[in-house]
Write a structure and sequence with these properties.
Helix content: 25-40%
Number of helices: 6
Order of helices and strands: EHEEEHEEHEHHH
Length: 195
């Protein structure tokens, strides 16, 4: 088996009603990666839709996955995908929204807690370790008194949608960098303040 295999999971909720929600930004990023690979998502017995391929010839092999479950119960499909592809959690990158990071910023990390992100919480429980890589896509805090639960289930605002393609492209670039050059190199590139 190719030793440079990666499982990239984009978190979100299934179905067209949720497709544009802030909570679905993980799904949007793996869609961008699939576009770069000219790959199509297909249903798979792990209760996820999966697309496989490489972006660069001879580069890392990516298995992109979108669980068919709701965000809060993402763990079962992720654990099943790791078993199916015989991958260690160290080869897992989870892409998800993060309220504590300003919109249009990324943070990359390995391990640690779930920070109140219920999809991550369920994955940590199902996989049995927090030791996997996360690409945290900033969606910012809700305005005024809007509840976070309500905010994440709304589509991006018009002003945000203008910037969103760049954010998704940056997050997809970050995934590629982690797989090709390692987390530390990717952090140095993507955590630097924009010029």
């Amino acid at each position: 088996m190719d030793s440079n295999n990666w499982l990239i999971v984009g978190l979100g909720n299934p179905g067209p009603d949720y497709a544009g929600n802030r909570h679905n930004v993980g799904n949007m990023v793996v869609d961008e990666l699939a576009r770069r690979m000219s790959a199509t998502f297909k249903s798979q017995k792990t209760n996820a839709r999966v697309a496989e391929g490489r972006i660069l010839a001879g580069g890392p092999k990516f298995t992109l996955a979108k669980p068919n479950t709701y965000m809060n119960v993402s763990g079962g499909p992720v654990a099943a995908l790791l078993r199916f592809y015989k991958l260690d959690p160290s080869r897992l990158i989870v892409v998800h929204d993060d309220l504590d990071i300003p919109f249009d910023q990324l943070r990359l990390k390995a391990g640690g807690g779930h920070g109140g992100q219920n999809g991550l919480r369920d994955i940590i429980k199902a996989v049995g370790t927090p030791d996997f890589t996360r690409v945290r896509v900033g969606i910012g805090r809700p305005p005024g008194r809007q509840s976070p639960a309500d905010y994440v289930l709304h589509d991006f605002a018009t002003t945000e949608r203008a910037v969103l393609p760049n954010l998704l492209s940056d997050a997809a670039d970050a995934v590629e960098h982690i797989a090709a050059d390692g987390l530390q190199a990717a952090q140095q590139k993507f955590h630097a303040p924009s010029p």
